[in-house]
Amino acid sequence: MTALHDTTPGLRPDLQPYTYRRRELVEPDWRRFPGWREVTEAQWRDAQWQRAHCVKNAKQLRALVGDLLTERFYDDLAADQQQLATMSMLVPPQMLNTMAPDAPLTPEAFTEAFLADPVRRYMIPVRSDRDPRWPSHPHSARDSLHEAEMWVVEGLTHRYPTKVLAELVPTCPQYCGHCTRMDLVGNSTPQVAKHKLALKPADRQDRMIDYLKRTPGVRDVVVSGGDVANVPWPQLESFLMRLLDIPTVRDVRLATKALAGMPQHWLQPKVVEGLERVARTAARRGVNLAIHTHVNHAQSVTPLVAEAARTALEAGVRDVRNQGVLMRGVNATPDDLLDLCFALQGEAGVLPYYFYMCDMIPNAEHWRVAVWEAQQLQHAIMGYLPGYATPRIVCDVPYVGKRWVHQLNEYDRELGISYWTKNYRTGIELDDPEALERRYPYYDPISTLPESGQKWWSDQS
Ligand code: SF4
């Protein structure tokens, strides 16, 4: 019974579905891993050391963790890499160190904790993580958002009337198992031969700048990849300065997961000084320069990540925002989402901006949630954070674009098909009179459907 004279102050946090408690950020001790026992603080903060010590295969993982992971784990990992992985392994020490931070250091217990770890689940996927019956949705596709179809110049996607996405490099300092650009980004895997960009980077950038000069209706440029942390700084700075020279460009957003995956990159003096020059120019010209990062779990928000975000803000970047990806087993609960948002907003100066539903790429069904689950999550996280810092959960509907998850037009829950509409044409629909009338489908994971719906899909296949 709720006593009116209860001594718990405030609105009885113990009676709320989510209890906020301020938590201090911690950098887990990397010396708990045998391979990093001797690694000094100076080495850890060094971006070159981080790049040189990324874990790229099972052999390097073994050398790092010694006997902490059992053979069961390595067998599971090898099976995944051979049969299902769409991304090759590339995990910076900073990210690996946030996995199973408090696990007991005995093989069985550590393996259990590592397998259950939310960051491990998307950075080092194993076979047993995947959906055994429907690893891929029948409508899944490489380049599920059809970005390459909308290239106006190689790597420049013009999908929204006023905005473009400029992919400068097809690489990142870290590779995420669920990468939506799995078609292009990273090294080929046994399952996926990656497409290659044909133009030389300098030529591609010249053509992008040329298109933007000729297209004054585009005011917003997302400079991405891959990850801009993999563009050599002088090259990136020169591209950004040329963008800022175009008077019609009013927003520039730099996409970099490395801010959280390898914050050491964004703390290098040459990068900070360069960012200051770019931010000063942007401010002088009245352009909104922001960094968009990609953090999926509160464990990843460490003091170094907060330091990198605050350093970017001090350098004059107007805002650092997070675009996480909503994934089952990683963060698809109200508590996980709110813990992450409070760590970002309250402790690191990063605005929780979006959570994307995981896109319909091959072998991603175990991560994806149904639209109705995303709607419930959106409802559950309302009211705790400041309104401007309450993230929107969005569905990137193929051929439509980002939509808030409640904006669907119609929803067949039995077959797991939601229908969406759009209010602008992409370049490939300019001659299509039906484009704005059509309903565009999006599909829930089949394993989330009622039995009758699952049977329907089985019958189809
Ligand atoms: S950082 Fe972004 S582009 Fe790079 S692998 Fe991860 S999701 Fe893909």
UniProtKB/TrEMBL annotation:
Residues spanning the membrane: none
Keywords from the UniProt entry: 4Fe-4S, Iron, Iron-sulfur, Metal-binding, Pyridoxal phosphate, S-adenosyl-L-methionine
GO molecular function terms noted in the UniProt entry: 4 iron, 4 sulfur cluster binding; catalytic activity; metal ion binding
PROSITE patterns recorded: RADICAL_SAM (PS51918)
Keyword S-adenosyl-L-methionine: yes
Swiss-Prot/TrEMBL cofactor(s): pyridoxal 5'-phosphate
Domain (Radical SAM core): residue spans on this chain: 158-389
Protein name per Swiss-Prot or TrEMBL: Lysine 2,3-aminomutase
